[in-house]
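Much of what follows relies on a compact textual record of a protein's fold. The record below shows the convention in full:
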Amino acid sequence: MTIQRMDNVLIVVADLDAAIAFFVELGMELEGRAPFQGRWAERVIGLDDVRQEIAMLRTPDGHGRVELAMFHAPKAISVEPKDAPVNTLGIRRIMFAVDDIEDVVARLRTHGAELVGEVAQYEDSYRLCYVRGPEGIMVGLAEQIG
């Protein structure tokens, strides 16, 4: 048996409203927001006394999702360094295909996002960049050219 699809990627945040605003500005659609708690939740994630709020966002094509979670209990823990470089072990970024990379970067900057490097062109195929958003969340942007 093989997997059916990748359902979503979880990002734990301290400011759920700021993270939602960032991803909505990117072009994702908020599907819903709800509390997540109870014994069943504790059994799934392996933590006791869980109280969190989650938000689910989807890409415009309906195939990709980002789940944002803000923990009220137990408190979320931070990794060091907070703004880890892209060569740090673990998941570093999520890549999104965009129509107009300059426009997306400009709009994300209104939410405090900063370019990690610069917008660069790969051959005659793509313009690419990494953007660091709220709480150090890193997203890659790829605009197909030609």
